Each structure stands twice: as C-alpha cells, then as structure tokens.
Protein 1
Amino acid sequence: MKRAGGAVTFDPARSAQMALIRGKNTKPELVVRRALHAAGLRYRLHDGRLPGKPDIVFRSRRVAVEVRGCFWHRHPDPDCKLARMPKSRLDFWATKLEGNAARDRRQEAELLAMGWRLIVLWECEINDPARIIAVIGEVKASPVNRPGSAGQERRPVKPIAAKPLL
Ligand SMILES: [Zn+2]
C-alpha cells in the first residue's frame, strides 16, 4: 500500500471510476449525459421532486429526459431486438414487465399534468447519433420559462477539474 506522510494515498480518478461502477447510473444514460453536457446543456439528475425521479432534468425548461432499457420498460417498437420476451416463464415476465410499463405511463401522465415534457430515449437508440442530436435540439428548443432558476442554469460553468465527472 502506498503511503504519503503516514496517510493512505487518495486517488481521485480511481474514486470517480469506482463511483461510476457502484452508481445506479447505467451506461446508456451516461452516453446521453455526456452528449447533452458537450452540447452546453446543464441538468439535474434523478430529481426526487418530480414523479418517478426522471434521469435527467432541465428545471428551467420543464423538460425531463428518461433513458429506458428496452427489455425492462417494454420498448413498443416491434423491430427492437432488445425488448423481445424470454421464451420461458412467459407469464411471470409479462406481468412483471407490463407493471414497469404501466408505471412509466403513469409517470409520464403526471409530468404532463404538471406542465412538464418528457423525452424518452430508448437503449437501442443510444448508438444513433441522429437521435441524440434530435433530443439535444428538442431540449434547446424548449423555452426557459422559470426566471428564478434560469440564471443559475445559464451561468457558464468554470472548468474546475480537467474533465467534469458526469
Ligand atoms: Zn429498443
């Protein structure tokens, strides 16, 4: 073990990596977050004040982005290979997954009722740059309508670390 002045050396890069591994953030979500961040958009994560704690939240624009796994959330696209049902224990899976999808629909309805907009990105769409660019465009096109928080989100972020930890 490395020691500096009697204390165990702290390696921030490694800590960050471990945080990513431990975290609940799935990889597709990180891909989207990096793209949004690179486009100059700033957001909150897993905002507990909103129904279903949406993954990525633009409060001043009242827009939320959810990155959904195709299998667990029943991507309705018939061409989606990731959403195919398992061949065994079909009843079990159908009940479980339909429950997830029903919860997603409730979340979306609640957000809409609060004047929010929900953009859903499916796991199988993550590797399509055109789709990501379209989402960035949708977010940017949403007007900033809450002056209180608008200033906060617009303020340029000082580069503190070499790379922001997303
Ligand atoms: Zn899919």
Note: The domain at 44-150 is CATH 3.40.960.10 (Endonuclease; Chain A).
Protein 2
Amino acid sequence: MKLFDVYPLFDVNIVKGKGCHVWDDKGQEYLDLYGGHAVISIGHAHPHYVEAISKQVASLGFYSNSVINKLQQEVADRLGAMCGYDDYQLFLINSGAEANENALKLASFYNGRTRIVSFAKAFHGRTSLAVEVTNNPKIIAPVNDNGHVTYLPWNDVDAMKAELAKGDVCAVIIEGIQGVGGIQVPAPGFMQAIRQACDENGTVLILDEIQSGYGRSGKFFSHQYDGIRPDMITVAKGIGNGFPMAGVLISPKFTPVYGQLGTTFGGNHLACAAAIAVLDVMKAENLVENAARVGAHLMEELKKFEGIKEVRGRGLMIGLEFENPIKEIRQKLLFEQKVFTGVSGTNVIRLLPPLCLSMAEADEFLNRLHNVLK
Ligand SMILES: Cc1ncc(COP(=O)(O)O)c(C=O)c1O
C-alpha cells in the first residue's frame, strides 16, 4: 500500500532526538528550531518523560472513559495550578482540531446560536467546524462550507464590535498569536475589546492557544499578556511533548451534561502520564521563564540582522518576515547549516523550538542564520 501523498517532504529521515537536537539515519545532527511544529515543549527524549511513559505503559496504557482515571484529575489539578485557571474544568481529547471542534460545539450547546466569528488568516485545524473557522478556502471541503462563519479583519475593533452587536454570534474563536497566519500578535487592546463585546452580547470567547500556549509565548498562555480570561481555552501540541493529546479548559459557567461530549482515546492513561511528566519538567526547569528570556534575546539579536524585513512574536514563537520568498533560505538552513525551521506562507520563517532552548543554542542558531544571510 502506498501512503496518501499529502505532505511535501524534505529528504531527511529523523530517527533520534535529544533536547533541542535531532539526528538523521546517517548520524547527521541538526539544531531543532522547529520542535516538530511547536510540539516539542520540554525537549526530545527527556529522561523524566521517557521514564514516566515507560512505567505507565508497562502497567496500563489504556482503559476507557467509563471508569475512574485518577491520572486525568492529576493533569487537571497540576495544569490548573500552573496556568492560573484552577477554577476551570478540563475536557481531554487527542488533537488540536478536536479541541476546537468540542469548544465550538459546547459554545453552541450553551447559547443555542450557530454563527461563529473568526479572523483573516486564522488556522484552527482540519475537522468539520475547526476547518470552517479556518480562513483558507483551499482546505474547506464543500461539505464543511456551511456558512456558519464570518471572518473579520485582524485587529479591527470596530468591525468586531459591529458584528457582535448583531446579537446572534455564538462564539468568537481567536489564536493567542496567529501561527499559520505568519506570527501575528494581537494589537494592544484588541483582546480586551473582544472580551468586552462578547460579554455585552452573550457571545462565547474561545482562545485557541494550541500553538501559542503551554509556555511558548513566555507566559503560560499568550492571552495572559492582555489580562483577559476567555470562556474556553484550547490546548494541544506541547501538552504531551509529542504524545497526541489536547484539552479544552472550560469556565465554571458551563455545566457538564452526561454524554454531551465524549471520546474513546481522550485522556487515556498513557497520554496523562506524558502530560504529567511535561508539567513536572516545565516546573522543575522553569521552562516558561526560559522561553521568555531566550526568546527576548533571540528577538533582540534578530532585529539587528540586515535583510530581515520584520521580526514578530513573543517568547519562543517568532516570525521572521523577508521581502522575498524564503524557500532558498530555509533549504540552506536545513541542508547546509543543519537547522530545522518552520514556515508561514511564502515569506515568513517560523521559529518554534523546544522551550528548553539554551542561550548557547540560540546563539548557535544566530551564527548559522548569519552564515546563510551574509
Ligand atoms: C492554532 C492552531 N489551532 C489548531 C491546530 C490544529 O491542531 P492539530 O493539528 O493537532 O489538529 C493547529 C495546528 O497547527 C494550530 O496551530
């Protein structure tokens, strides 16, 4: 059987990882400024993580959501304390798209409405509603194109207020920092204005922190720079450091109803063991603070580079916009300088390294980028 060929691939076979480095099958080492697409939070093959998952799988990898799973409560307690949302409720699933799908469903169950506001260049996943709120017609299949969604311009307070004032908007969904959209940080005041308009119009505010959350921005959640509290927060990627897992953090104003949401694999024992190990390491190694410190250093140095049009981001979620397409720069970074980076559109390089990136590794990246751009 052939693989369904939907991914344009680099001709590299990664077989091993450690911290912020990965190795291919020929033994070549690479510096990982991509984190497997913002997924690796505590670093590749962290010994505590390896031990926790190994122990768990040796005793119980999976049992269903029809029995008590104390590990789920431990994830909820630990996550609530660490991110400042102790009073919220946690629903566990397996992927980012599923997290947004469930958050949107719950919003609609809550207020009975069907219209969603999303934003230009938004990306929220590829399942039915998650893809409909994603502002990319190329990946919205006709069956998903159901007219639920109004896409508004990014950072446009007046357009947002006017749309919500119609009084029939179920939910606003917004990324903490737009990732696929090119590392777009919301302008000061935009998040607060959305929060206020949602309150005034009975609209649910869903913060997609799947890429920008879990410490990546230098705070646990990027929206915490804006001092707001959303009604729901979706998380995935870094929560399991590569183990597929996701969650919806749900405000106390939503009352759970038996059977209304559900999943076979969500919150399974192995996933919870991974998530607990991630939280252990994030705390012990102060990785949120590290992301803030190393990210600030990277941004400051990158702004001195000639040839980069704009440097945007927070913490270790950084976009480098160039005047021209970056394909060749990214190829040279990978094949000549042995550095993995991400991309947004044609002109933006995305940096999404593990949150344990050291100052020395950041400087090493700057040297290698300099070698390409000089
Ligand atoms: C902001 C955001 N939301 C949702 C998703 C979808 O997550 P997943 O691929 O785990 O379904 C992504 C993935 O890149 C994302 O960046």
Note: Residues 95-97, 100, 123-125, 175, 179-180, 208, 210-211, 236 surround pyridoxal-5'-phosphate (CB under 6 Å).
